[in-house]
Amino acid sequence: MNITNPQLEASQGANGLWTFLVTAFLEYTREEVDSEFERWASVFEADAIGKDDPIIESAALRFRPPSGGHPAQWKFQNISRDLIDTELGDEEIYVQISLRNFTTDSFPITARTPTITISA
User: Which of 2, 10, 15, 111 has its CA 20 to 30 A from that of 99?
Assistant: First the structure.
């Protein structure tokens, strides 16, 4: 299993609320196609002076993968400034994508989107 090309886009609506759109491509070996998997994504605000601050996490989605791989998408909507704005100035946001083989109870693999800067 593998996670490739993780990307993050952010947009702010007229109401001031943020939407984060996350995309990636999930790949599987031929042997893994018969397994059950879980995938989820977690949005973080990167903290320059310590531990990054979690903003929101998706629910885990359990599924059986198609042969080879498939695109995956997460959409986080109506994120308020209060959740994002944790320090003075602009905020650096990234998403960590997690994927694990539920059938074999493996540890999840993760991939991180590039960090983007937003003005919350």
Answer: 10
Measured on CA atoms in the order 102, 104, 105, 110, is the torsion positive or negative?
negative
Dist. CA 51–CA 61, nearest whole Å: 27
Say how many domains are in the chain: 1
Q: Give me the CATH number covering residue 37.
A: 2.70.50.60
Question: Residue with structure tokens 């359990």?
Answer: 62
CB atoms within 10 A of CB 59: 9
The rounded radius of gyration (Å) of the Cα atoms in the chain is 16
Give me the amino acid identity at 49.
Answer: I
Convert the pLDDT of each residue in 50-81 to its tens digit.
678 889 999 999 999 988 899 999 999 999 98
Reported as a single tens digit per residue, the pLDDT across 17-57 is 999 999 999 999 988 988 999 999 999 988 766 678 889 99
